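**Fold tokens**
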Amino acid sequence: MTPVGEQSRDNLGAVAEALVIENDPTCDIRRLGEWLTEAGLGLRVLRAHAGEQVPDSLDGFAALVVLGGEQSSNPAPDGTPGAPWFPALERLLRKAVRNRVPTLGICLGAQLLAAAHAGTVERSAAGPEVGPALVGKRDAAEDDPLFKWVPLMPDVFQWHQDEITELPRGAVLLAASTRYPHQAFRLGDRAWGLQFHIECDTDMIATWARSSPLPAQLGYDPDAVVAACDAVMTDVEEVWQPFAVRFAALALGQLDDDVRPSRRLPLLGQ
């Protein structure tokens, strides 16, 4: 994984790259990065939390991946954004969808994708969601180039207290759960939002369990949460590593997809 400003090349010349936006130092691309690079997609990691500037465009990039973080996608009551770079990141997400750049938002990244397109994100009335979980595919997933091969009830990792309460106009719901109805969606034909995590390894989850207040809010033993996540790590990999390979293939122009947006997307400002 190559930081912004460094070149990623092989003996045949330039490698097609995805721009990866890292919003939180404890929420990096981890196993997802390994799966994408193994599939032939280079990664340029931009550490926005460390002050690296979000670009104005995706020129030169084959895809965009926006990772999670502890921030809220919503601005504060006085209008201050959840992080200083979020307005620029939302503009970039709108450009990605408009220009059909393959895009993947994970947890906070999915919430930012929704918010950038007039969806609604709120503190969940159902309370935090932490640890291993199952989500259920919706019927529309059967026609989705990434989700149609995902099993009916895949294992995922959850770690959030905000939720997308209203999807953007034209978004297609791909996965849901009882307490959190918007677990995965597609916007346009090449942008996906996942409320859950697929990138974690056990060390990442252990870091969250030690530092996050969410397990305590639920009365969970942090060590038990880590052990429960570790127990399904292989199951998560078996589902989401092929998903990552399909995303990389789409970015590399190797995936034949015929998805069409179900409705016209609203025209939002840059």
Summary: The two ends are 29 Å apart (CA to CA). The first helix runs from residue 30 to 38.
